[in-house]
Design goal:
The chain is α+β, with helices and mostly antiparallel strands. The protein has 2 helices and 3 strands, in the order αβαββ. Bound molecules: guanosine-5'-triphosphate and magnesium ion.
């Protein structure tokens, strides 16, 4: 019996995906609340203090109906001077 390495298509398709990973880029004008909505969603925190973002990568790990889900969330700069766009 060979060792099972990686995907076994017949078995994995039958039990469904067990891992998923998605990348999300949050874009918008300066001070509209991009960072706030990310920190509220991931860390359940909110602050009225404003600190402009240059660029920040966040990661969230969730387990939904037995599927492990990883979200890579990129928080971008809204202000023109530091924006990559
Ligand atoms: N009252 C209220 N204030 C908010 C809300 N969302 C964000 N703010 C405030 O608005 C300001 C800007 O929020 P940020 O989340 O930093 O905005 P941003 O879009 O990330 O800004 P940049 O990083 O400069 O692009 C902060 O002082 C927040 O506290 C909200 O839903 N209600
Ligand atoms: Mg920000």
């Amino acid at each position: 019996m060979p060792n099972r390495v990686g995907r076994n298509n017949a078995v994995d398709d039958a039990i469904g995906p067990t891992n998923a990973r998605h990348k999300i880029v949050v874009m918008g004008s300066a001070k509209v609340g991009k960072t706030s909505i990310i920190t509220q969603f991931l860390y359940n925190t909110f602050t009225t203090k404003y600190k402009r973002t240059i660029e920040e990568m966040h990661q969230g790990n969730f387990s939904i109906a037995g599927v492990s889900l990883t979200l890579d969330i990129l928080d971008t700069a809204g202000s023109y001077e530091v924006s990559a766009f």
